[in-house]
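Lab notebook, bench 4. The sequencing result for the construct came back, and we need a structural model before the next group meeting so we can plan mutations. Quick request posted to the team channel:

Model the 3D structure of this chain.
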Amino acid sequence: MIHDDATEQTRSTPGPSRVRLAKEIRQFLNETGMFPTPFGILAAKDDKLWWRIENAPKGISLDKADKIREFMAESRRTRNQRPANSSKRSTVMADLVENVTRKRNRGL
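Done. Here's the predicted structure in C-alpha cell form:
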C-alpha cells in the first residue's frame, strides 16, 4: 500500500467552504454570546456540530450548511426586531426560546 502524504493532508485540511462557514459561525457566536453546543442543537439538531465543522474529515452536508445559515439569518432578523435596551444575554435567551418554539410549531 502506497502512502501519499499530499492526499492525507488534503483530506484532513478543511476546504474553503468549511473555513468560510466556520468563520461565519464564529462571528455569529461572538455577536450573540451563544456557546457552540446550544448553537449546534438549535441550528441543526447536532450537539457536536462545531466539532464536525472544525475537525471531521468529511465535514457536513450542504443541506446542513444551508440549514445553519438559515438559522443564523433568522436569529439575526429576530434580534434586530428587539428593543435597543435589551441586554445581550436576555436577547440570546429570547432567541433560543423563540427558535425552539418556532421549530416545535413547525414539527421539526
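The CA atoms of residues 34 and 92 lie 7 Å apart.
Will bring this to the meeting.
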